[in-house]
Design a protein that fits this description.
- The protein is mainly alpha-helical.
- It has one domain (2-205).
- The protein is 69% helix and 0% strand.
- The chain has 11 helices and no strands.
- The radius of gyration is 18 Å and the shape is globular.
- It starts with a helix and ends with a helix.
């Protein structure tokens, strides 16, 4: 998992590891620290980010090849990425600033989808914190529950979070509201195209 940590989170640069742990948010801190240390022992954050970016581009070039409307999808995503607020979104900013292919095809579009993924992730982390829910509790009260908590490095036993269901649902709604602001830059036609093309891209990947 060191490659994952130095790859996805390498866009933060050669910063203190606590900065990376904070940006990753939902990972158990000691687990993420060990992952970052292992990743940085193999390559620098800049190198890791470049490798992860290349993987995104190659995946897009393969999975979205010949998809009708792929350039239009990239155009819309880029408009959102260019205008979204950077506040509270360090991973989004890091990914936003990674070089993208000049060709407006599937590789570029998929990389922009990765940037959008980090944008919504950042909004979600802010919403969870604003709701007063800890990272472990957020995971446990989510759809994958204990399985996801284990994957994110949290040791058992886990607390009972049945009393957090409503708070978690409210945080999800707050995430959607914050992310909706990111989409305000789009026209009605662009919103419709984004919805339809995002669904088409998902289906096209198989």
């Amino acid at each position: 998992m060191g490659g994952y940590a130095v790859g996805r989170l390498g866009v933060l640069g050669d910063c203190p590891i606590d900065n990376v742990v904070g940006a990753a948010y939902f990972w158990e801190p000691a687990t993420m620290t060990a992952m970052v240390e292992a990743g940085r022992a193999a390559m620098s954050p800049a190198e890791g980010a470049a490798v992860y970016t290349q993987i995104c581009q190659e995946w897009g070039a393969e999975k979205l090849a010949a998809m009708e409307g792929v350039e239009r999808l990239g155009e819309i995503l880029e408009k959102v990425v260019a205008s979204a607020s950077p506040l509270g979104a360090p991973l989004f900013v890091g990914w936003r600033d990674m070089p993208r292919p000049a060709d407006p095809g599937p590789a570029r579009t998929f990389q922009l989808a990765q940037v959008m993924r980090e944008l919504r992730f950042s909004r979600h982390a802010v919403a969870i914190q604003a709701a007063g829910i800890g990272p472990l509790e957020a995971i446990l009260s989510g759809p994958a529950g204990a399985w996801n908590a284990k994957m994110f490095g949290w040791p058992e036993p886990y607390p009972d979070v049945t009393d957090l269901v409503e708070a978690r649902e409210a945080a999800e709604a707050a995430t959607d509201q914050m992310h909706a602001v990111d989409l305000d830059v789009l026209t009605d036609d662009e919103r419709a195209d984004l919805r339809d093309l995002a669904k088409a891209a998902r289906a096209h990947q198989g």
